[in-house]
Design a protein that fits this description.
The chain is of the alpha+beta class. The protein contains nine helices and six strands; from the N terminus they run H-H-H-H-H-H-H-H-H-E-E-E-E-E-E. The protein has helices spanning 12-34, 43-108, 114-119, 124-130, 139-194, 199-222, 230-240, 259-269, 278-281, and strands at residues 286-288, 298-301, 307-313, 316-319, 328-331, 339-344. Helix 2 (43-108) packs antiparallel against helix 5 and helix 7 (230-240) packs across helix 8 (259-269).
Length: 345
Amino acid sequence: MASHRRTKQPSRTRVTVLTTAAAAVAALSANAAHAAPSEKPGTDEVKARVDKLYEQAEQATEKYNGAKEKQQKLQKEISTIQDSVARGQQELNTLRDGLGSLATAQYRSGGIDSSVQLFLSSDPDDFLEKASTLDQLSSQQVGALKKIQEKQRELGQERAEATEKLEDLAATRTELGKKKKEVQGKLAEAQKLLNTLTAKEKAALTAEQQRADRSSAARVDLGNDTSASGRAGAAFSAARSQIGKPYVYGATGPSSYDCSGLTSWAYAQAGVSIPRTSEAQANTGTRLTRSQLQVGDLVFFFNDLHHVGLYAGNGQVLHAPRTGTVVRYESMDTIGGPFMFGVRV
């Protein structure tokens, strides 16, 4: 007689798990069916994002330039102080040798008394504190001791100043490294975006820029306000001779430039020293409105003044724009940031 067994029913827990898994798979399938494929950014979007990255890189570049300039200044100051300390130490040694000669003379004439032994110690301040009266010493001895005291105080102050500046230099070098890393990061990100464009798209962007360059150059040539004289004229002529040189962050010529590197180099050729950074250059002369500009005046853009060029006349600027470009003319209205003011050096 055959045995009849009841078929084992799946547990409620297992049914729940299987149901949930099936629902999840169904949901994922539905989402996949309706999800739009990732779209490659268009040329205009890439250009806008790249321009923004270049702007951020230029901001960091000017901070980098400032830190580098401060580093160079501190190094010179530290070197000057260290030279002064070395000379002072030699003077101090000479003064001490003089006291030694005086003591020798006293010994030959009858021995060194206790007061002379004290002032031959390495701490003249301690001697003067311990000496009961200055009449124990000759005027020559008192004068020598006071000179030693003064020189020791002077050396102590200079050494303290050097220590402070060395600490400042270390902090400045750290800041310099951070800004350099920031600039390189922005430029790398921009290059990565540019690499998403096809050769045809890149060629179209290049052609567009070349047309803009030709238009700006033509406007400069046709303008009635392109003549310049004096220092501004000499600076403008110098900058014009550099048209076509590449932009490189931190560069001051003569083979490449960043924006403030070009303007500081140009004015140096005219015999005028102006600060290295755009922010500092903004304080080198009389501020001007757009209608007051003359050829060779400095022109500043963006709220933080991180971009500077030379006014070229007829609404154009001669400048080193950004990475990937060269020194060129460009309309003041297409710089990418608002014109803030001009400065006549």
